[in-house]
Amino acid sequence: MGEPRVALLTREYPPEVYGGAGVHVEYLSRELARLVEVTVHAWGAGRPRPLPGEPAVLSYRPWGELAGSEPFRAALETLSVNLAMVAGTGSANLVHSHTWYANFAGHLARLCHGIPHVATVHSLEPMRPWKAEQLGGGYAVSSFAERTGLESADAIVAVSAAMRRDLLSCYPEIDPQRVSVIHNGIDTDEYQRDLATDVLERFGINPQRPTIVFIGRITRQKGLRHLLDAAELFDPAAQLVLAAGAPDTPGIAAETATHIERLRSTRGGIVWLQDRLARREAIQLLSHASVFVCPSVYEPLGIVNLEAMACETPVVATNTGGIPEVVADELTGLLVPIEQTNDGSHEPVDPAAFATEIASRVNLLLGNPEQARALGRAGRLRAVEQFSWPTIATRTVKLYRSLI
Hints:
By secondary structure, this protein is α/β, with parallel strands linked by helices. 43% of the residues lie in helices and 16% in strands. Helix 12 (323-326) links the parallel strand 12 and strand 13.
């Protein structure tokens, strides 16, 4: 079949990116385009013509007839986009899907066009039961789409060794020989220290004051409520910057707002940024952070930890999922121990103890700035040496060629 002609299937692609999977596809597609022919198939409005060196992008919208207020309709809209994507991938000789939002399209393209399907696993529906709160009956649909796409895929890429273990546990029908580990990456030319302060000043952040930063969506997975509990114990001299938005449901949005207001009643220096940060804004926030905190209870890898490390910021992160494959304990940051429930929620057995462990490590670094700076420098070095996108793209193309 010759050289790979790849159709990358994804929900997220710039300018519509809200999570780690979208960041992954953005950078991976750019590097793949240097090596093979690539077209991106993504949700959203039409995109402008690509710049030189960037892949072409085809955009798809859900069927209007499926719009409605019932939560399950979001899953049906996903399937409608998947069907349209399949019709648009006829010129490819391989499809590569990302997340359940596109896995079913990869499966159907495999059937319709007789071409290999590679699926990258960024998370797993069985590991996120709280999504039933978000999708209602649509959670059963998303689980069906993911299972069908992954169990029939010709090859699966897990973004961490922990993700591979979870995948094979959730879907024992999958042949382990079909599953490879290729980590997420980071562009360390783009993500590096920004010593300017204009973004901080615009957001009302004092660049002279110790700063604790969180960046993430408002979802159970990211553990924000545990961070807010821990913040009661943070050194009061430090600011807490919460770049937290895109709540999964109105309920969790209201719960988070109430929690933040309660925290503000007991301490000052709370800055809540609810709009998605531009990349330069995020880089400057990370560059000036004394500590970056990742309190996730479920995290297959955690690109945001790599982004912080590339900006020479020490990380305090939960010792769960793929995080320990990125954050080296006592070398690039500090890992927080957690005993998790076995009910599928991944919540800590003792939330108060978990919050206390977060706070103790944050305060340790706040009180030892030299140690914090050393961890930050080591984090930058680790990001450069082990998580470059060109290396990841080369490994991905090698996998493609083994299938065609």
